Structures are given as structure tokens and as C-alpha cells.
């Protein structure tokens, strides 16, 4: 296999349906390319969360129109995803890729996250691909802040203060197309944050709080995270946003069926931040 025994996949990454261009107008068959984190033990068996990212995986589903139980899946190690340090080892900065994928102006834009060595700050990165190269990070072009490069190490930060799980989606608002990023507040904060940009590389707006999760107030065992937008499921003038409420006490999760599953809130688009322009 690709990984040592005991490794599992965490589907925090995004995916996209692609068609390989075969020339002469033949767009080929649809395939589904999905990104995931490969997880393993962190070396801290007494900790609440004894796991860490050991790498990344890219899965290509050859027959996505069939039932998932019949999918034919090709897997490969994602060469631009780096492991996080084990418990007790010196911290090291690491990049992960594939957390969000946006089709915009004929290209596919792939977002990544750079985690600082101390794990406290997470920053947004950007690469560009097409249908034929989405599953081949070696062929991507990485945004340096001024140009596109074939070197993943040259990728520049386009926004600070993100988290591992988020969404970036196109949204038509005020007569123009924008991109909206939805995330939970870092460090398990109670607020759901939004950012906006006029194009994939930004500039991105400052994070704006659009909702505060009240369910975690008054119970120190509870936490909220994993906020995401769902533009394709939203009503006109609204953005449907999901989030999770979880507990550090497993017994509480078993006793309360409302925990550790998505909850939803409708956010009016007028509450979302305005996208910035280069001259602002």
C-alpha cells in the first residue's frame, strides 16, 4: 500500500469533476478527483487527539456516475503535502494542498494551507491547474504573490488566519461574481468568519464574523468548528452555512444525538464582507 498499517484518510480536502481533453473536440469521460489527508498516530496516546497528518493522497475515481460502492479508484501520494511533526519532536512548518478547489475563468484553482512550526498560525496558499493536470501537482502553477511558478516552495501566502477546514465558492452578488471563503474562528473560537475576493489570488478581505455559535456557551466541554458554505444549496439572497458542535467528553457525544453532526444557519449575503480591489 501507499502508507504504513494504521494510516487512515481524513476527507478534509475538496474534489472536482474533470474531463481529459483528448483533442479534436473530444472531451473524454468524466472523472472525479478527490484530495484527502493521510492521518496516523501522533505519538501521544494519553492525549485527546492522538493523530497527525503524515501526508496527503489524491484519489481519481474513474467511474463517478456509478454507485460509490462500484467506484474504481486510483490512489497516489500527493507529493506537495508535508507531514506535521510527531509529539515531542521539534515543530516544523508544513504545507497541505487540496482543501478547496474552484473552477474560475476556465481554470481550476487549488487552495492549500501552510501551518507554522508552532501550529498556531495557518495561512492560505494558491495553485492553478486544468482538467488534465488536477491530479498531477507536479504540473501545477503556484502563485508567488506576483506571478505563477512551477515551484511549490515558491507559493506565497494570500491570507492569514485560516483553519484546516473551510470552503471557497463563487457567489454572484451585486451584479458581479465574487469568491467567498467560510471558516470557523481559529483555535476553536465560537464565531463563523467570512472573507471575499474578486479573483482567486485576491486580495482577500479581512475576516468578518457573520454568526456566533451559541450552543457552546455555558458548557466548557463543547466546542465548535468545521464551518463551511453551501452556495449551490442556498436560496436567493442567502448563503447556507454548516458547522459542527462537538464535545471533549465521549460519553456526552453518545448521550446527545445532536452532537458531532452538521448544524445549519442561513446568512444573508448583505452580511458578507465586500471584496477588495487592487487599488483599495
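-> sequence recovered:
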Amino acid at each position: 500500500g501507499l502508507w504504513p498499517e494504521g494510516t487512515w484518510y481524513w476527507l478534509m480536502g475538496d474534489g472536482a469533476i474533470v474531463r481529459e481533453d483528448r483533442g479534436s473536440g473530444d472531451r473524454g469521460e468524466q472523472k472525479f478527483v478527490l484530495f484527502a489527508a493521510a492521518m496516523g498516530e501522533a505519538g501521544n496516546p494519553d492525549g485527546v487527539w492522538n493523530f497527525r497528518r503524515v501526508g496527503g493522497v489524491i484519489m481519481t475515481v474513474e467511474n463517478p456516475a456509478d454507485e460509490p460502492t462500484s467506484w474504481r479508484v486510483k490512489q497516489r501520494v500527493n507529493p506537495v503535502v508535508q507531514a506535521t511533526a510527531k509529539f515531542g519532536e521539534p515543530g516544523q512548518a508544513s504545507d497541505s494542498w487540496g482543501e478547496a478547489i474552484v473552477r474560475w475563468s476556465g481554470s481550476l484553482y487549488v487552495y492549500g494551507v501552510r501551518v507554522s512550526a508552532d501550529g498556531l498560525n495557518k495561512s492560505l496558499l494558491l495553485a492553478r491547474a486544468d482538467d488534465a493536470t488536477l491530479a498531477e501537482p507536479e504540473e501545477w502553477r503556484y502563485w508567488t504573490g506576483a506571478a505563477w511558478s512551477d515551484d511549490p516552495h515558491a507559493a506565497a501566502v494570500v491570507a492569514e488566519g485560516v483553519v484546516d477546514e473551510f470552503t471557497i465558492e463563487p457567489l454572484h452578488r451585486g451584479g458581479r461574481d465574487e469568491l467567498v471563503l467560510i471558516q470557523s474562528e481559529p483555535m476553536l473560537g465560537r464565531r463563523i468568519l467570512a472573507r471575499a475576493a474578486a479573483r482567486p489570488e485576491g486580495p482577500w478581505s479581512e475576516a468578518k464574523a457573520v454568526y456566533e455559535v451559541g450552543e457552546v456557551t455555558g458548557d466548557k466541554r463543547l466546542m465548535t468548528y468545521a464551518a463551511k458554505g453551501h452556495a449551490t444549496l442556498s436560496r436567493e439572497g442567502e448563503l447556507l452555512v454548516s458547522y459542527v458542535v462537538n464535545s471533549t467528553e465521549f460519553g456526552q457525544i453518545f448521550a446527545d444525538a445532536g452532537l458531532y453532526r452538521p448544524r445549519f444557519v442561513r446568512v444573508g449575503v448583505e452580511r458578507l464582507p465586500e471584496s477588495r480591489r487592487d487599488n483599495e
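The mean pLDDT is 94.
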